[in-house]
């Protein structure tokens, strides 16, 4: 695929002012396609189109909006194979991941928000006694969810389908209109999503997509006066800059930022389960996922056995072309990111960590591969323990008792998702409640897709997923009247 992609603004496919740039396959280093580089004026035009479309779309019956989302889900599902092939080529994900966890999850999210839910609820009446403010009476009240307005959705490169779908679908379901700014590394899939929504009957201006490799594109999508809310998934550093801009004009924001997930493994844990769960850091998106259990905190009674089994697990994972059915670990997104991950591995060695797996670049003629890497005997002050690496790298820190384990887990700037492995379920839940994280997995890395998702501390602001996303993309209005 070498076609030149156009922008999607106000229901029209528009030539970009800034020309095009190459999108590169991380596995082959070949050109996947040419993505459009929007100008600041074009980003503002997209927001203006969304503003114009907002009033009629927000007044459209929820059932009609849901029908558009349902048709989009069907179109995405029908085109799963070509859509997944593009996602695999752009992101470097394995074929199975691209089909199941990228395009498949996107279709499921559009289908989820095609379900109309009540947008208002009654509040118990208030009985007022007679007094200086008037006669006795009863005041009724109703809480109503109203759309926020125009939402800028800035999406991450690690999942070019599920991540934007998780923003666009609930935002549209609530009656908002959107300007989507995809990650520069793999934006082409988001344009396919826009095509599906267009074919599903989304009116012009309801969905707009503007891309670019220059930071000015994202900046324009955030600071534009027509934008009421910014939903961002990405690094904490970029999220902080976006939040500063949003704060100046009081834009609403939803931030899903970095993570350094702690995995507390107690002496009585099922080690096989823990190894398989922690091992997803190596295999799932090659560690490029903020929810990964990258920081293992292992009780001393099980420490050596856990390190040994994690080492064997990491060393035997097949690394290679993500198109091949036997591949488990594909490439990271770019050469620059590969260099960054490798520099952290070298830093860990210099800090005194013991390298027990990985550390050498896999032998491939092309592609940006990083071997699954395990750093043992780490200490809490090491940068590899404290900073998000975003690659297939796991660090292991020992602990003695429950209190120390909890303290080590909470000793971080992040707080997205932590994990606890223990055969004592009562203890696991007790520990989970003391962890300063937006989510905790007990003996699993699986997720309930209706559970709220978001982080404590520098891992984000707000919650989405399930019904919580409908709250995130809405304002609550109170209507009161005398009974």
Automatic annotation (TrEMBL):
In terms of domain of life, where is this protein from?
Bacteria
Q: Boundaries of each Aldehyde dehydrogenase domain copy? A: 13-479
Signal sequence region: none
Question: What is this protein called in UniProt?
Answer: Aldehyde dehydrogenase family protein
Output the InterPro entries linked to this UniProt entry: Ald_DH/histidinol_DH (IPR016161), Ald_DH_C (IPR016163), Ald_DH_N (IPR016162), Aldehyde_DH_dom (IPR015590)
Name a Pfam family for this protein.
Aldedh
Q: Which UniProt keywords apply?
A: Oxidoreductase
Gene3D superfamilies the UniProt entry points to:
Aldehyde Dehydrogenase, Chain A, domain 1, Aldehyde Dehydrogenase, Chain A, domain 2
The answer to whether keyword Oxidoreductase applies is yes
């Amino acid at each position: 695929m070498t076609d030149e992609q156009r922008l999607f603004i106000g229901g029209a496919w528009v030539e970009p002012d800034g020309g095009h740039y190459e999108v590169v396959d991380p596995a082959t280093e070949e050109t996947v396609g040419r993505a459009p580089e929007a100008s600041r004026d074009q980003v503002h035009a997209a927001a203006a189109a969304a503003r114009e479309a907002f009033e009629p779309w927000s007044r459209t019956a929820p059932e009609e909006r849901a029908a558009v989302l349902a048709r989009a889900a069907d179109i995405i599902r029908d085109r799963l194979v070509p859509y997944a092939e593009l996602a695999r080529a752009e992101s470097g994900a394995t074929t199975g991941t691209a089909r199941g966890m990228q395009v498949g999850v996107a279709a499921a999210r559009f289908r989820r928000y095609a379900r109309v839910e009540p947008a208002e609820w009654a509040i118990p009446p208030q009985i007022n006694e007679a007094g200086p403010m008037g006669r006795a009476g009863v005041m009724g009240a109703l809480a109503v969810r109203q759309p926020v307005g125009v939402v800028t959705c800035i999406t991450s490169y690690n999942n070019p389908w599920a991540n934007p779908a998780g923003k666009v679908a609930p935002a549209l379901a609530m009656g908002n209109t959107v300007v989507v700014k995809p990650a520069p590394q793999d934006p082409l899939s988001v344009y396919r999503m826009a095509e599906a929504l267009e074919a599903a009957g989304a009116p012009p201006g309801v969905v707009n997509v503007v891309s670019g490799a220059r930071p000015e594109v994202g900046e324009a999508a955030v600071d534009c006066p027509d934008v009421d809310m910014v939903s961002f998934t990405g690094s904490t550093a970029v999220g902080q800059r976006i939040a500063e801009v949003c704060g100046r004009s009081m834009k609403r924001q939803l931030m899903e930022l970095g993570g350094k997930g702690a995995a507390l493994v107690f002496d009585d844990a099922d080690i096989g389960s823990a190894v398989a769960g922690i091992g997803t850091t190596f295999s799932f998106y090659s560690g490029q996922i903020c929810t990964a259990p990258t920081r293992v905190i292992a009780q001393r009674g099980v420490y050596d056995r856990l390190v040994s089994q994690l080492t064997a697990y990491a060393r035997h994972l097949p690394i290679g072309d993500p198109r091949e059915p036997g591949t488990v670990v594909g490439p990271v997104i770019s050469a620059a990111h590969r260099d960054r991950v490798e520099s952290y591995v070298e830093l860990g060695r210099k800090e005194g960590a013991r390298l027990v797996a990985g550390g050498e670049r896999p032998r491939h003629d092309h592609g940006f591969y990083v071997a699954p890497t395990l750093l043992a005997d780490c200490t809490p002050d090491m940068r590899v323990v404290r900073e998000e690496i975003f690659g297939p790298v796991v660090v292991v820190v020992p602990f003695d008792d429950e209190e120390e384990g909890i303290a080590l887990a909470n000793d971080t700037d992040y707080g997205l998702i932590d994990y606890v492995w223990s055969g004592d379920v009562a203890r696991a839940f007790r520990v989970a409640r003391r962890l300063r994280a937006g989510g905790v997995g007990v003996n699993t890395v699986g997720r309930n897709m209706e559970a709220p998702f978001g982080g404590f501390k520098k891992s984000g602001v707000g919650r989405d997923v399930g019904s919580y996303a409908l709250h995130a993309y809405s304002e609550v209005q109170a209507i009161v009247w005398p009974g």
